[in-house]
C-alpha cells in the first residue's frame, strides 16, 4: 500500500510541475505576441475659434520602408495648453495597414479659455504611436481646422512622422 501511494504522489507531482511549466511558457509567448512599443510623434500647433474643430488624420502604409508587409498601428492624441498641461486626450484608435483614421476635437471639447477678443484657443498636439513592427515606417499625417457644421477646411498643416521602433 505504501509503495502504491508513493507512486501516485510522484506521478501527481510530476504532472503538477509539467502543467506549471507549460502555463509559464504560454504566458511568456502571449506577452511577446502583443509586444507593442509606444513612440512619441512630432508636435503640431493649432488655434481654433468657435465653430471649428481640429482633425488629426493619419495613414498607415501597406509596407514598411524595407518593403515588408506592415502591421496595424495605434494612435492616441494628447492636446496641451500653453503651459504644457494635458487638457484633452483621445481614445486609442487602431489603424490597419493601407487605411486612414482621424481624431476630432471640437472647440467646446477643449477646457481652456480663448484669447480675449477673438476667443481663439491655442493648443499643441502630440501623437502617441503604438507599434508592433520593428522595421522603420513613415506615417503620413495632417492637422486640419474644419468648420464643425459643414466640414469645410480652413487650414491644413501637413507633416510626416518617422515612427522609429
Count of individual helical segments: 1
Q: Given this structure, which CATH class of the largest domain is correct?
A: Mainly Beta
What is the beta-strand fraction? 35-45%
Overall spatial form: elongated
Detail the poorly predicted runs: 1-5, 14-33
The main sheet comes to:
6 strands, antiparallel
Number of structurally distinct domains: 2
Distance between the termini: 62 Å
Mean pLDDT across residues: 79
Classify the fold: give the CATH topology of the largest domain. Hypothetical Protein Tm1070, Chain: A
Architecture per CATH nomenclature, i.e. the level-2 architecture of the largest domain: Sandwich
Number of strands: 10
Radius of gyration of CA atoms, rounded to a whole number: 25 Å
Order of helices and strands: HEEEEEEEEEE
What structural class should be given to the helix and strand makeup?
A: alpha+beta
Give the proportion of residues in helices.
10-25%
Overview of this structure, please?
This protein is an alpha+beta fold and 165 residues long. It has two domains: 35 residues; 127 residues, Hypothetical Protein Tm1070, Chain: A (Sandwich), CATH 2.60.290. 19% of the residues lie in helices and 45% in strands. It is built from one helix and ten strands, in the order αββββββββββ. The strands form two sheets. Strands 1, 2, 4, 5, 6 and 8 form a six-stranded antiparallel β-sheet that branches. It has a four-stranded antiparallel β-sheet with strand order 7-3-9-10, with no helix packed on it. A hairpin with a 5-residue loop joins strand 9 and strand 10. The longest helix is centred in the N-terminal third of the chain and has 32 residues. It is elongated and about 50 Å long. It starts with a helix and ends with a strand. 17% of the residues are buried.
Amino acid at each position: 500500500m505504501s509503495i502504491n501511494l508513493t507512486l501516485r504522489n510522484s506521478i501527481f507531482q510530476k504532472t503538477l510541475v509539467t502543467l506549471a511549466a507549460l502555463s509559464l511558457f504560454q504566458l511568456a509567448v502571449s506577452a511577446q505576441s502583443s509586444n507593442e512599443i509606444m513612440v512619441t510623434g512630432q508636435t503640431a500647433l493649432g488655434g481654433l475659434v468657435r465653430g471649428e474643430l481640429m482633425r488629426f488624420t493619419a495613414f498607415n502604409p501597406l509596407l514598411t520602408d524595407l518593403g515588408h508587409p506592415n502591421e496595424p498601428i495605434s494612435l492616441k492624441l494628447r492636446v496641451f495648453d500653453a503651459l504644457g498641461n494635458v487638457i484633452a486626450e483621445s481614445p486609442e484608435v487602431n489603424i490597419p495597414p493601407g487605411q486612414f483614421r482621424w481624431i476630432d476635437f471640437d472647440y467646446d471639447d477643449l477646457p481652456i479659455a480663448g484669447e480675449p477678443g477673438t476667443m481663439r484657443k491655442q493648443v499643441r498636439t502630440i501623437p502617441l504611436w503604438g507599434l508592433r513592427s520593428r522595421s522603420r515606417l513613415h506615417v503620413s499625417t495632417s492637422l486640419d481646422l474644419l468648420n464643425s457644421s459643414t466640414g469645410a477646411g480652413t487650414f491644413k498643416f501637413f507633416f510626416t512622422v518617422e515612427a522609429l521602433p
